[in-house]
Design a protein that fits this description.
There is one protein chain. With about 550 residues, the protein is α+β, with helices and mostly antiparallel strands. About 50% of the residues lie in helices and about 15% in strands. The strands form three sheets. It has a six-stranded antiparallel β-sheet. It has a five-stranded mixed β-sheet with strand order 8-10-11-13-12. The model is unreliable at about 1-5 (pLDDT under 50).
């Protein structure tokens, strides 16, 4: 025989809310997960003050049914609004939570077919939820505006005072001016296994700066250990308050909050009041929010200080490196000159055997290679000290200089095909030695990085105002990620299959020499086209002004 359970359902709406409270909460939890911020909260945080609110709502309905004057419950909605603000809800999401609660209650009443669905108290239920929405909206807005004003002042103070020792007192000043109940505040930063007071303000606590607190053995230490706020209603007599300066200060309410940056503890912030044993939830929320912002600003200031320190170290290291490169290059110059002169003398002296001639040529070729490296290092140290490369322009023909370089490199690389062509005028005023250095660097790069069996070409095209020079080689392209940095010092364009790469200064020095002539240089490298370096040399018909 079926049992009619309808009569077993509570007839009063208040009793229905109490009897089905867990079902209402379960249905609401499922529905509220549709809100984006709710998905990242665990169940206790999400339910928050809702069970208390349902109990208060039921008591309100009982009072009204009994004929008593009763006001809709607002305490839980106030707390709920503040806590939702802290975890990142916007105002519409706070309102939506109450709308979903109303929906869950009404649908459950109808689903159960309860007598309560015919209750005249349904109107009071709606008025109670409406009041919760109005109260939450107002308190959320007030707290949000207050918090934003305080955070704006904190940000302004941080922009004005970048150094932590100047910034921290300003943060406390903002806190004291924002919260009327706060008489004292302090910031204790984590240093190893202890907390050290780095800033303090109010009722003479400025003298406590430098005091240390062990983790776990005080209110601030407990906050640091648990990563959660801790409060005291009697700072003078609470055993958890161990600092004598606080116990003798006359403070009653004492509250500490962790200063967190993600999962990292930066320190602990504390506030105290002589007039209040407890701080309002609004003041606590504001204080926790300001503590979080202070943690971020402190971490940023520390990071900036560390970057500045490393930059100073790097600048000193680079200065020392450049000095050593300059000294080394200078000291190598004279011994290399002796080696080259000796090799030249041997080559022009008594007849040598073929093996001896090859040995002398190897000595001379390698000495010239080292001489080029030394020259590049000297040029680099000049530019590193902010000096332009010196040039001495005189009448010269770029075509003749190209042939001179190509002929010399052809002798060193007899298996390579090197070509030099010209179109139009190629004469002007140039520093022949420097131009030869550029051509040698570019053609050597083409030889080293070019495809086996493919020619390296130098093409000149002259006009009245300028001469364009293109050095081209086939082969694998320079990696795209390297192209924006290819003219930086100590950069290589990729693997060098035919020889050990040099210092990576060739293109950098070439760019500096071309710039000293008032020209420009660019590089293109593609799979189907190979690599081309294009240089624009201004072609002057008379000697330009001397450049340093």
């Amino acid at each position: 025989m079926e049992t009619d359970t309808t009569e077993e359902e509570p007839r009063r709406l208040a009793d229905f809310l109490r009897t089905h409270r867990e079902t209402i909460l379960s249905d609401w939890l499922t529905a509220v997960r549709s809100l984006a911020p709710a998905r990242r909260l665990d169940r206790p945080m999400l339910i928050d003050h809702l069970p208390q609110y349902l109990d208060d709502l039921a008591d309100f309905l009982d009072e009204v049914r009994a004929g008593h004057t009763a006001a809709e419950p607002v305490k839980a909605p106030v707390m709920h609004a503040l806590e939702r603000l802290e975890v990142g809800y916007n105002l519409s999401e706070v309102v939506e939570e109450y709308a979903l609660l109303r929906q869950c209650i009404v649908e459950l009443v109808h689903r159960e077919g309860a007598p309560a669905m015919r209750s005249a108290q349904l109107v009071r239920l709606h008025s109670g939820i409406d009041r919760a929405i109005v109260t939450s909206t107002a308190r959320y807005h007030e707290a949000s505006e207050r918090t934003l004003r305080a955070l704006d002042r904190i940000s302004s103070a941080a922009l004005t005072h970048r150094q932590p020792e100047k910034m921290l007192p300003e943060l406390l000043k903002v806190l004291l001016e924002t919260c009327a109940a706060v008489d004292a505040a302090a910031l204790l930063l984590l240093e190893g296994d202890v907390l050290r007071v780095r800033a303090a303000a109010g009722i003479g606590l400025e003298n406590t700066i430098g005091e240390m607190v062990s983790l776990g053995h005080s209110l601030a230490g407990r906050v640091a250990q648990t990563r959660a706020p801790v409060s005291s209603t009697d700072a003078a007599n609470d055993s958890l308050v161990t600092r004598e300066s606080i116990r003798r200060s006359g403070l009653r309410g004492y509250y500490g909050a962790p200063m967190m940056l993600g999962d990292e503890l930066v320190g602990v912030a504390t506030i105290g009041s002589r007039s209040a044993a407890e701080f309002s939830e609004e003041d606590r929320l504001l204080f926790r929010t300001m503590s979080g912002r202070a943690a971020a600003l402190i971490a940023q200031a520390r990071a900036e200080a560390e970057v500045a320190r490393r930059n100073d170290e790097l600048a000193a290291a680079l200065e020392y490196r450049n000095m050593m490169l300059g000294v080394l290059s200078h000291d190598l110059h004279n011994p290399l000159a002796v080696i080259l002169m000796s090799a030249d003398a041997l080559g022009r002296g008594e007849p040598l055997s073929e093996m001896q001639q090859r040995a002398v040529r190897r000595v001379a070729a390698n000495a010239r290679r080292v001489e080029n490296l030394v020259r590049d290092l000297l040029d680099y140290t000049r530019t590193g000290q902010g000096q332009a490369l010196p040039i001495s322009p005189r009448e010269a023909d770029l075509l003749a200089l190209c042939h001179q370089v190509v002929d010399g490199l052809q002798a060193l690389h007899p298996d390579m095909e090197l070509r030099c062509t010209a179109e139009g005028r190629t004469d002007g005023w140039f520093d022949s030695d420097r131009v030869t250095q550029v051509i040698s660097n570019l053609v050597t790069n083409g030889i080293v990085h070019g495809a086996a069996g493919a020619p390296v070409t130098v093409a000149l095209r002259g006009s009245d105002q300028e001469i364009w020079m293109e050095v081209h080689n086939e082969g694998p392209p320079i990696p795209e990620a390297l192209l924006p940095h290819i003219f930086e010092p100590f950069r290589h364009g990729g693997a060098a299959p035919k020889a050990t790469p040099g210092l990576g200064l060739g293109l950098f020095i070439a760019q500096q020499i071309v710039a000293a002539h008032g020209g420009s240089i660019e590089l293109q490298s593609k799979d189907e086209e190979g690599t081309t370096v294009r240089v624009r040399w201004p072609r002057r018909d008379s000697q330009p002004s001397a450049r340093p």
